[in-house]
Known about the structure:
This protein has 124 residues and is α+β, with helices and mostly antiparallel strands. The protein has one domain (10-122). It is 40% helix and 15% strand. The protein has six helices and six strands; from the N terminus they run E-H-E-H-H-E-E-H-H-H-E-E. It has a four-stranded mixed sheet with strand order 2-1-3-4, covered by helices on one side. Strand 5 and strand 6 (121-122) form a beta hairpin. It is globular, with a radius of gyration of 14 Å. It starts with 9 loop residues before the first strand and ends with a strand.
Amino acid sequence: xxxxxxxxxxxxxxxxxxxxxxxxxxxxxxxxxxxxxxxxxxxxxxxxxxxxxxxxxxxxxxxxxxxxxxxxxxxxxxxxxxxxxxxxxxxxxxxxxxxxxxxxxxxxxxxxxxxxxxxxxxxx
Length: 124
């Protein structure tokens, strides 16, 4: 990762997506110890330091760890859960056979429709 590495995990998300903002708000509520920094990808000055191409940031959330590891889309979910007090046990579900594959497909489906998601319902 170019430049200085963050001192804590950083979640980069779509700040213009209501669905995404709702989930980030949930992560913030669960993150009582403020272990995760959150940045909308539209904050180009801040996200430039991570060296992730803008099209990739627009396509999926990214979790960047202080050691430089990057997890995108559904692969970020269990890593986020591991960082949240009281939610680590949920990350274990991603180790079950087939769960990660289903999570990736579900994430891709939601990501393609997130502009249409209102109050949790797709309006296609």
